[in-house]
Write a structure and sequence with these properties.
It is a single chain. The protein is built from ten helices and 27 strands. The protein has 492 residues and is α/β, with parallel strands linked by helices. Strands 1, 2, 17, 20, 21, 22, 23, 24, 25, 26 and 27 form an eleven-stranded mixed β-sheet that branches. The protein has an eight-stranded parallel beta barrel with strand order 3-6-9-10-11-12-13-14, surrounded by six helices. Strands 4-5 form a two-stranded antiparallel sheet. It starts with a strand and ends with a strand. Bound molecules: alpha-L-arabinofuranose.
Length: 492
C-alpha cells in the first residue's frame, strides 16, 4: 500500500491555465494537412480548418497556442502570409525538409484557428533574420484599433477589429537556429526589440517573452535576466526528452526496451530540477517585478517513423508518452508560482502530438487523453500533495513509482492526478485528504503496456476508462494499474 497525501490547507498558488498550452509550427504536417486543409478540400472544414481536429482540440480546452515556430519563426516574414492567397509569396522552409511554403496559412488563418479553438494567440517573432521595424509592424497590424498604416492594411485584408494579441516571443532559440547568438548579444537585441513592441490602447495587455535557455544552460538565463530582465515579462525554457542523447539515434517511439522506457521517464523527471533552478535565477534578478517562466517547448523527441520525411518529425505516441506528459504537467502544476505557461511540442503530427492524421483520418494519442484527464487543473488552486514513493526501474535507471499533483477548482471539487510509472506492477494507493471533506469520488484511468499506442486501424486501443475507488475514513483507496495515469475528482 502506498500513501498519497493531499493538503487542502496549503497551496503554491493558482495553476495558470496556460500551462496546458500547445505549440504549432510550420513543420511537416502540423499546419498543412494536420490543422489546415484549405476551403476547397474534400476533408470537412470550416474556413479551411479541419472540423474533426478542431472539435477534438476544443474538448481539451486549449488555452493558448504558440505559432509560427520554433526555428521557422526566425525565417518567417509575416507580410508574406497576408493578403489575397494567389498573390502570397512562395518560400522554402529551410529548417524543415526544404519544402515549399506557399504562405496560404498566415496571420488571419492562425487567428481564425485561435477563434475556433477559443484560445489565446502566442506569436513568436522573427529576431534572427527580421528587423525591429518588421516585428513592431506585426504588433501594430494585430493590435491597433485606430487609423494607422498597419491597421489600415489589416482592414484592407478583411479584418476590421484588432485581435489584441497578448503574448509575443522575442525570437526563438536565439542561441541556435534563431541566430547562434551569445547571451550577452541576445540580451541587448531583446531590449531593443522589446522597446518597440507597443500597446495601442490603455487597457491592452502585452506579455513580452525573452528567448530562453536550452535545458540546463543556466548562464543563458542569468545573463538574459541580468541585462534584459527589466524589459520582459517572462523568459522561456526549452527541454526535450530523448531516450538517447545522440541526435542521429534518439531511439524509436514504438520499439523500445524496458531500460529505454525508464531512461525516458528519468529524463522527463529532470524537468523538476530545471524548472526549480531557472525559477531561482528569475527570482534572483527580477527585482520588484515578477518575471515568469514559460516552458514553450517540451515533450518527447524520437527518431521519425520509418519511411517518413526526416525533416517532418513525425513520431508515434504510446503510454510512455502519456507518462512523460503526466509527470511534466504535475511538475508544472506544482511550480505554478513561477511557471505561467507551457506549450507541448507539438499539437498535430509533429513530435509528442495530441493528434495524428492521415488524409481524412484522425487518431487521438495517449498524450491527448492525459490532457483530457488534467484539464480541470486549469486556473484551479494548486494543493500541496506528495506520495510515499518507492524507486522502480531497470538497473541504474530508477524513478519514483508514483507521481502526483492536485488542485481545487472554484466549485470546491478537488482534482488529483497520479501516475504509476511501474511498467509491470499495480499500486494500491491510500489517499489521505487533509483540510477537506471527501464527498463522492469519481476516477478515470489511462493504462496499457508501455508501448501501447493508437493507430488508424485501432484508434481506441488506449483510452480513459472508469476506475473503482473505495471510500475510507481519511479519503479513499484505489488500485492504479501498471503504467497508468489516473484522475480522481473529489466532490466537496
Ligand atoms: O519543435 C521542433 C524544434 O525544436 C523547434 O522548431 C525548435 O525551436 C526546437 O529546436
Amino acid at each position: 500500500m502506498s500513501y498519497l497525501f493531499v493538503n487542502a490547507n496549503r497551496s503554491a498558488g493558482t495553476i495558470n491555465k496556460n500551462i496546458y498550452g500547445q505549440f504549432s509550427e510550420h513543420l511537416g504536417r502540423c499546419i498543412y494537412g494536420g490543422l489546415y486543409v484549405g476551403e476547397d478540400s474534400p476533408i470537412p472544414n470550416k474556413n479551411g480548418l479541419r472540423t474533426d481536429v478542431v472539435d477534438a482540440l476544443k474538448a481539451i480546452r486549449v488555452p493558448v497556442l504558440r505559432w509560427p515556430g520554433g526555428c521557422f519563426a526566425d525565417t518567417y516574414h509575416w507580410q508574406d502570409g497576408i493578403g489575397p492567397k494567389e498573390q502570397r509569396k512562395t518560400i522554402v522552409n529551410t529548417n524543415w525538409g526544404g519544402v515549399t511554403e506557399d504562405n496560404s496559412f498566415g496571420t488571419h488563418e492562425f487567428m481564425e484557428l485561435c477563434g475556433q479553438l477559443g484560445c489565446e494567440a502566442y506569436f513568436s517573432g522573427n529576431v534572427g533574420s527580421g528587423t525591429v521595424q518588421e516585428f513592431s509592424d506585426w504588433v501594430e497590424y494585430c493590435n491597433m484599433g485606430g487609423v494607422s498604416p498597419m491597421a489600415d492594411l489589416r482592414r484592407k485584408n478583411g479584418r476590421e477589429q484588432p485581435w489584441n494579441v497578448k503574448f509575443w516571443g522575442i525570437g526563438n532559440e536565439a542561441w541556435g537556429c534563431g541566430g547562434s547568438m551569445r547571451p550577452e548579444y541576445y540580451a541587448d537585441l531583446c531590449r531593443q526589440y522589446a522597446t518597440y513592441l507597443r500597446t495601442y490602447a490603455p487597457d491592452q495587455k502585452m506579455v513580452k517573452i525573452a528567448s530562453g535557455a536550452n535545458s540546463d544552460d543556466y548562464n543563458w538565463t542569468k545573463t538574459v535576466m541580468e541585462r534584459a530582465g527589466g524589459w520582459v515579462d517572462a523568459v522561456s525554457l526549452h527541454y526535450y526528452t530523448l531516450p538517447h542523447d545522440d541526435w542521429q539515434h534518439k531511439g524509436s517511439a514504438l520499439d523500445f526496451t524496458r531500460a529505454e522506457y525508464y531512461t525516458t521517464l528519468r529524463k522527463a523527471l529532470r524537468m523538476d530540477e530545471l524548472v526549480e533552478n531557472h525559477s531561482r535565477i528569475l527570482r534572483q534578478y527580477q527585482g520588484s517585478r515578477t518575471v515568469g517562466l514559460i516552458v514553450d517547448e517540451w515533450g518527447t523527441w524520437y527518431d521519425v517513423e520509418p519511411g517518413t520525411n526526416p525533416g517532418f518529425l513525425y513520431q508515434q505516441n504510446t503510454m510512455r508518452d502519456a507518462l512523460v506528459a503526466a509527470v511534466s504537467l504535475n511538475i508544472f502544476n506544482n511550480h505554478c508560482d513561477t511557471v505561467c505557461m507551457a506549450n507541448i511540442a507539438q499539437m498535430v503530427n509533429v513530435l509528442q502530438a495530441m493528434i495524428l492524421t492521415e488524409g481524412e483520418r484522425m487518431v487521438l494519442t495517449p498524450t491527448y487523453h492525459v490532457f483530457t484527464l488534467y484539464k480541470d487543473h486549469q486556473n484551479a488552486r494548486q494543493l500541496e500533495s506528495y506520495v510515499g514513493a518507492a524507486l522502480v526501474g531497470e538497473g541504474e535507471e530508477q524513478v519514483p513509482d508514483l507521481h502526483v499533483s492536485a488542485s481545487q477548482g472554484a466549485d470546491g471539487a478537488i482534482l488529483i492526478t497520479a501516475a504509476n510509472l511501474d511498467d509491470a506492477a499495480s499500486r494500491t494507493v491510500h489517499v489521505v485528504l487533509e483540510g477537506a471533506k471527501a464527498g463522492a469520488v469519481t476516477a478515470r484511468v489511462l493504462s496499457g503496456a508501455a508501448n501501447a499506442a493508437n493507430d488508424f486501424d485501432h484508434p481506441g486501443r488506449v483510452a480513459p476508462r472508469a476506475l473503482a475507488v473505495t471510500p475510507t475514513a481519511e479519503g479513499f483507496d484505489a488500485v492504479l494499474p501498471a503504467c497508468a495515469v489516473a484522475a480522481f475528482r473529489v466532490e466537496p
